[in-house]
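Let's practice the habit of predicting before peeking. Look at the sequence and jot down your guess about where helices and strands might fall. Then scroll down.
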Amino acid sequence: MVIQEIQDKLMSASKPVARLYYKSGDVKTIFIGFKKDMILDQHKTHLPARLMVITGKVTYVQASEKTILNQYEYKDIPVDIMHEVHADEDSLCMLIQG
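Done guessing? Here is the structure:
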């Protein structure tokens, strides 16, 4: 249901759509939906995190380093480092924090 809600919201969204999927203690799982060319603006995480592409393709940008992530690929995101995510295709990502 969370993924269907994201897909429905993306139809009229101008920014990526994120929804909490699961939370237990300090661990959270969030799904983030993107339409092609959407950007998740620069931000930091205060907990260790891993971004995994479920469908589509995104580019993870950290400082001057760009990492292309295809379906089922992932990137570990360091704490307190500015980063952003660019959607190269319509995409669905899973973010695990904690």
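How did you do? The chain has a mean pLDDT of 97.
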